[in-house]
Amino acid sequence: MSGAGPTAGAWIGVALLAVAACATDDGPRSVDHLIPRGFPPMVVPDDNPSTVEGIALGRQLYYDQRLSPQGNRACADCHDQARAFTSPTAPGVLPHINLAWSRNFLWDGRFEGTLDEAMIMEVEEFFVTDVERLKQPDLEAMFAAAFGTPEVTTHRAAYALAQFQRTMVSGDSPFDRYADGELTALGAAERRGLELFYSEQGECFHCHATRLLTDNQFHNIGLDAAVAGTGRGVVTGRALDDGRWKTPTLRNVAMTAPYMHDDRFATLEQVVDFYSDQVVDSPTLSTLVPVGGYRLSADEKADLVAFLRALTDERFLADPALAPPP
What we know:
Cytochrome Bc1 Complex, Chain D, domain 2, mainly alpha, 2 domains
């Protein structure tokens, strides 16, 4: 295959132009400037506008083990910034990247709603936060700054976490710079991989859509032949949803190993080998995924991996505003 020529350019243009046209300047100034070019609008609820003080509280709580009843676990313990807010030791963890655009959460989508509602679930059901543990002078002062009074509630804690997570925006990879016109941002192999990604041969772009690189939907990609009672079907109770799992974003994917809902693949090379040669049939297999796989050559596989590595946003991985508070 040749470098990204008119065919690849056409695919990128069609796939991204509609999204770029939706960019907006609406919303709180404290997060609006974080929305990268070409991203959809970020929905910020009227009852939880992002403020500097609210984001600061959310950042503190994200890294604060007092959020857990025993005071020994924080969000960041399973979501390491250097690993794109994942952890290789936390089974099935999904990265905390661009969640402000999500409406389905967790691999099987057992929670549906806004980011703010998802954070209420995290605080009240996952952590089962004891607010008495949060009633400390330092945190009460931050709650007062964020919400006007020092009252500590799980609802306020969740809303602050949502404000912080709305700042966890990744959109400055070599791919983004290339798509925005910096043609030297990608090398030859990366451009060939991009062309394959956006082609009907590779089909990647159908599910890993728009600049978010996910459609936030659920698909059976052919991991297993026996799918009854697994995946999205567990939540909906519908057999047609068996074996379907959420499409994860591919942003910073080189940093988020292991891969798939059950961590079965350790490397990107193994993931690409699966899509190329190991797809198995099942009753709910996506029509976009051929039984057996896409049958890529060794060179095509290498080019696709090179492109996936070009989705790494070094700024995001080292942004001091997302790091533990001083």
